[in-house]
Design brief:
The protein is α/β, with parallel strands linked by helices. It has nine helices and seven strands, in the order ααβαβαβββαββαααα.
């Protein structure tokens, strides 16, 4: 599927930038100063893609483009705390709080050059992964809410999905069977 034209991309960025919470903008700019890219994932990313999930979320879940090492963990923690954020380490990454919850994760199994190239910037240093990659992330999770989200994506945006890319990414992740099952339940191929 061809990428959206640059004009629409700029318009989408301008339309959405104003609705990104200022705390996320601050966290993202801190991460950018450390040389890290920030990607919005989960429910917020689908809202940006125009998918109506029928639910709201207070949380912002983001991933960064470098694996957590002890040095990076300590640097991120120090930088965010020096800016007044509450930072907790979790098994999946960080929880940052300042009136909102921001989960900072690393998704090494899917984050590659293709994932990055297909993402688009929606605010400074805040990237939105392709809908296909978000589907794969949700398939990887396997949680009921994530499978329900995939069904909503398929029902509302199947016509916009690059099916070849989606199938190839599912195959790379070893999730072909899971994808076929969700597609079959949705009456799609």
């Amino acid at each position: 599927m061809p990428q959206e034209p640059r004009e629409e991309e700029g318009k989408a960025r301008n339309d959405y930038t104003s609705s990104i919470h200022p705390t996320l903008l601050l966290v993202s700019s801190t991460l950018a100063r450390l040389g890290l890219k920030t990607f919005i994932i989960d429910a917020r990313s689908l809202i940006v893609h125009g998918v109506d999930l029928g639910r709201e979320t207070r949380d912002w879940i983001i991933i960064i483009d470098k694996p957590f090492t002890m040095e990076l963990r300590d640097t991120i923690t120090r930088e965010l705390r020096s800016r007044g954020f509450k930072v907790q380490w979790r098994k999946w990454g960080f929880l940052v709080e300042d009136g909102i919850h921001i989960d900072i994760n690393y998704a090494p199994l899917i984050l590659d050059s293709e994932f990055i190239e297909r993402s688009r910037e929606v605010a400074e240093n805040i990237l939105l992964p392709s809908m296909e990659d978000i589907i794969i992330l949700k398939l990887m999770s396997g949680e009921r809410k994530d499978i329900d989200d995939i069904k909503k994506i398929l029902a509302q945006a199947w016509h916009r999905i690059d099916k070849d890319y989606l199938y190839r990414r599912a195959q790379q992740a070893g999730l072909e069977r899971e994808l076929r099952k969700v597609l079959r339940r949705a009456g799609l191929r």
